[in-house]
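Reply to dn_fold:

You asked what the input looked like. This is it:
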Amino acid sequence: MMLGSPGYIMKINNIIIALLAFSLAAKGQGIILNAGDSYTYEFSNLPDYNTTQYVFLGAQAAFSLDPSSLSPGYQMRFEVFENSVSDTPLFSSICSASNQFVGADLPGDMLDLQGVVRFTMLAGSARVAWFDLAVFKPLQTGGSDVYFQQVVPTPEPSVIALVTIGALSIRLSRHGRFGHAA
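and this is what came back:
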């Protein structure tokens, strides 16, 4: 392919679109919640991770907030449910500057490896960088099977971003150059 040929320009345009898409996805390293926002994560299975010599029965959930994203006076409710958000939470607490917990122990719960985690921003803003879900099932021979998953929440792309990328893709696929028919 020669420099400046329609095929060459089409490849360059496609690379630019891919880079734009990847740059939009890279901004999704965690999710920013503002007052009134919530993020819900439902899981129906956790992958088998390891076996440990320690016996623990139940679940653990832990999360990380980006310290640089915390606004003054932030308050975030963290909840864990067995089946759905319409159930009574197994765990619920408010994380704030004065109560900086980062997780929950749920002895005897979630042994079916499914549940729901919800973050609700009550005041201020914060970025949830990641959260871990772990369930421990005791073995007959001692110790526990560990089922574990780390989740990096990513925001849904905005409608405007999706429409813009779609329109650019259609335009560039029909034209070898901007404004010139192939």
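The chain has two helices and twelve strands.
Hope that clears it up.
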